[in-house]
Design goal:
This protein has 84 residues and is α+β, with helices and mostly antiparallel strands. The protein has one domain. The chain is built from two helices and five strands. The protein has a five-stranded antiparallel beta sheet with strand order 1-2-3-4-5, with helices on one face. A hairpin with a 4-residue loop joins strand 2 and strand 3. It is globular and about 30 Å long.
């Protein structure tokens, strides 16, 4: 689910933590513009600062299975011209 206002994409809900994973884009984060983080409980799941979208998708793929190529295309539509 995309959230344009917060610049995040929300992913799989995790019943154990009572939260889910999200991918957040931060234009100000030059070295780590993409963040894989916990949806609600930032203390439970670490924030992974990623240098590019491929690194971020690799982190998400460790938590649950995603189609990396399809997800990259979907994100490209959400962030045109920003993928590195």
């Amino acid at each position: 689910m995309f959230d344009e206002q917060d610049q995040v994409i929300r992913y799989k809900w995790d019943a154990w933590t009572g939260s889910g994973y999200r991918l957040r884009y931060d234009a100000a984060g030059i070295e780590h513009a993409y963040h894989v983080e916990d949806w609600n409980n930032h203390v439970v799941v670490d924030d992974y600062g990623c240098a590019d979208i491929d690194e971020a998708l690799g982190v998400l793929n460790r938590f649950f299975d995603i189609d990396v190529a399809a997800e990259r295309s979907r994100i490209a539509a959400w962030l045109p011209g920003r993928l590195q």
